[in-house]
Amino acid sequence: MNEAPSLRRDANLAKPAASRSNLLGRLFKALIKGPLPLYLPAAIFLTLFFIVPLGYVLVMSVTEPKPGLGNFAYLLGSGRFFAVLLETFKTATIVTVCSLMLGYPLAYIAAGPARRLGGALLAIIALSFWTSFLVRTYAWMVIFGRQGPLSRWLETLGWTPPPKMLFTSFSATVAMTHAMVPFMVMAMYAVMKRIDPRFVRAAQSLGAHPLRAFSAVYLPLSLPGVVNGCTLVFITCLGFYVMPVLLGSPNQQMISGVIGDQIEQVLDFGAASAMSVILLVITVALFWLYHRFIGLDRLWRK
Amino acid sequence: MRSLKLLAILIALFIAIPLFIVVPMSFSANASLEFPPSAFWLGNYQHFFTDINWMQPLFNSLYIGVATTVLTLMLAIPASFALVRHYFVGRTALNLLLMLPMIVPQIVMALGYYMYFGSLGLTQSYSGIIIAHTCLGIPVATLIITAALKSFDTNLERAASSLGAPMLTTFRLVTFPVLRPAILVAALFSFIQSFDETVISVFISGRDTATLPRQMFNSFRMEADPVISAASSFLFIMVLACMLVPLAARLTRRATRGSIPAQAAH
Hints:
The structure holds 2 protein chains of 2 kinds. By secondary structure, chain A is mostly helical. Chain A is about 80% helix and about 0% strand. Chain A starts with a helix and ends with a helix. In chain A, about 40% of the residues are buried. Chain B is mainly α. In chain B, about 80% of the residues lie in helices and about 0% in strands. The two termini of chain B are about 45 Å apart. At the A-B interface, helix 2, helix 4, helix 5, helix 6 and helix 8 of A face helix 1, helix 3, helix 4, helix 5 and helix 6 of B.
């Protein structure tokens, strides 16, 4: 007598359970068919191996050697760190301006009507772009070295003894400019190639002097490329490690070099992390500003 | 216009000449960085190609580069499909996550990996470097593949499946061949990025897993190991050859194409 109702109750219970598992199954199927399995591996990989180590830096900056903002207070109050920041910004600015001045004419001619010359210029830019930074560093070590071609040339001009050039901020700046010109040219070439040459011709046929046609028509149209190139180069320079460390002056280091020293020689991970956080914040802020006014997707659109 | 062209050529020379300087330097018999060298020999190359301290890093770099490329493509290709073909919650966040390694300065990541891999026991291991390089390679690979996917005409796939092709067959015969150039470019960028990466390798690779850039960086610091000239010149000539070989192939093809009508006339 008692068994029948209990069976019925079981049947009633089983019904929603079945539909729930059915729902889960449908959800699972939808997820499998949807984008989740496509992006999940990359998302997990980057979270585990990029976000977590980045988090280590953030956490270490406020916990090492003791919890609190001591590292930041010390750094921001330190005249030496301020000098390092200033040197970093100064070098990045000089390199950006110089590579813009060298890159603009090069990109202009490369995007212009002279096909063969343009191709040759682009080939040289590509050659430099693909050559390892260390190879370029070596080349500048030879050029600026005490027995290098530049010293000898200055000596024959009567400048004896020739000035010390290697391991100064001058040699690092020249080498970084040389390394950044290809980035600058590629960013500007992408924009200049799309400028319709008929615009400039139209301005000239309406009586504008070639210089005026350039400054009123071509230059404004090429500005997005200039902004892209300058942003890329400036941000790359802020975090540049190899060339400033190998070619620059040990007394006028940039922030990356100081962070490296803290890791390798001083073993002060708290200070290194705090400096890294400051560098990171500056970099992200610059990207954010760029994004705010221009849009990040434009930077990477080829 | 003519003076502007001259200016552009001069700037191009400023870019090119320092690169070519490494070639004569590699034959220099001087121990110091004397240029032009006063004596020539092949000893630097002999050292480079026989010294285990240089060959081991070269092969390490090749191995790490290939592994990084494979892993990067395995992660970036599906993620690119998700980004371009699907709209879902968190798509913007995913895009940001995939681009982040391009934004964060490498010295910051070097410090992060130094501490993180230290706690995982992955410093001085191949896997540590491969993992770090894969993170760095994902943004560029994703950018290249999403750009190609955006211009992909999905009607091609619809045509294939309407003709009865299963999904995998459609991918193998239609989607993949169209995307192949972009995938190859992405692979090339990943490999070169890994092969050239210096900052993170300097901090996290050990003696046995040293990459070529790390070995070069350290010998710069020790100063005046003339073998570095051979290593530099070797790397530069590799790049030069990779650029010149396709050019030469195109020129000979053009030359032979020109001669075919001439033969037909005979």
